[in-house]
């Protein structure tokens, strides 16, 4: 088992942070073939895989998620971030990525993004190789 | 391979049931390090990880999911539960959890919830250690 | 490590294609017990598990996803498919399936669907046994 926790400093309430470079660095010199779990130990954040080329894509996804899961007047959670908890369950707190010949097996346009829904905060993501 | 199927008796049409205690009991005395897959073999239910401290969080998530995936008049599925099938695909029927030193590697506030979207029913979740 | 890439020819902009038969063929004669990762290397597609019996279910899910993630006038991504990127992150680009006694451990009604959100295209899904 090889495991590492990386830190992510988010700067806005909602933000998608590209963590592909840290993940590539982690698997370098680690394994030739295997599988990587990326686990986010937070309940108002998530991790997703999406387009890494045009920065308008994470911006549009962040915008759309605010439409899909707005702050609702019926929410009862007193911290005022129930919308962020909903987004966390919609996107999910883990991703599985395959490794082949020591490289992340991602599609041409894919990158891995930490999704902040209730920032800014210092956040963690756990990387585990299997 | 170590595997167990747990039963969940749901009491309402939509409900999030905390199954963290059963999962902790399953991994106790099983492994020191590893990975657990939680797989829900149903198409109108799901499994998610979210806040386990304040019961208003699962209640607000359940409420929001009814806004996000309401019953639509255009649905053609005759059983009348297409909204539940949509929610199942949005949340997902499996979760991966890491185990470290024999403990679930969850964040401070995280718990694992079985999500019922078309209950009440007797449901299953399959726990598999790898 | 046993891995295979399958091709999926989609025929519409939005479509759910049942890929359970190809996956069953892949695991046949491969393993007795294990776990299968299905990874979609695209950012406007996804993979989900849902009801495989009544074709109205994938049709209703596709319809509902168009309501949940419509084309928004505020989107800035110039390719005009930001709605498809949003759907990809909502549904997710991978699924984990358990294998027991050489068979997919799916529920009675479950099938595995490739989700096209910006077709028609020739798409891939990577199957990896662990």
Brief overview, please?
Chain A is of the alpha+beta class.
Please describe what this structure looks like.
Three copies of one chain form a homotrimer. With 130 residues, the first copy, chain A, is an alpha+beta fold. Chain A has one domain (2-129): Jelly Rolls (Sandwich). The first copy, chain A, is 24% helix and 38% strand. The first copy, chain A, has helices at residues 20-27, 56-68, 82-91, and strands spanning 2-9, 15-18, 34-39, 45-51, 94-100, 103-104, 110-116, 122-129. Chain A has a five-stranded antiparallel β-sheet with strand order 1-8-3-5-6, covered by helices on one side. In chain A, strands 2-7-4 form a three-stranded antiparallel β-sheet. The longest helix of chain A has 13 residues, at 56-68. Chain A starts with a strand and ends with a strand. Chains in contact: A-B, A-C, B-C. The A-B interface holds A 1, 3, 37, 39-43, 68-69, 72, 74-79, 82-83, 85-86, 88-90, 92-94, 96, 124, 126, 128, 130 and B 33-35, 48-51, 54, 56-57, 59-61, 63-65, 67-68, 90-92, 95-98, 100, 105-110, 130.
């Amino acid at each position: 088992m090889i495991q590492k926790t990386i830190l992510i400093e988010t700067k806005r309430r909602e933000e998608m942070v590209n963590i592909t470079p840290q993940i590539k660095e982690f698997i370098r010199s680690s394994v030739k073939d295997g599988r990587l779990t990326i686990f986010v130990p937070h309940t108002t954040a998530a991790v997703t895989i999406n387009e890494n080329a045009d920065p308008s894509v994470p911006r549009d996804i962040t915008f759309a998620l605010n439409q899909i899961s707005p702050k609702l007047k019926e929410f009862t959670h007193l911290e005022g971030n129930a919308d962020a908890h909903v987004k966390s369950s919609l996107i999910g707190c883990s991703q599985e990525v395959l490794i082949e010949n020591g490289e992340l097996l991602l599609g041409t346009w894919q990158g891995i993004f930490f999704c902040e829904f209730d920032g800014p905060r210092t956040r963690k993501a756990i990387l585990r190789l299997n």
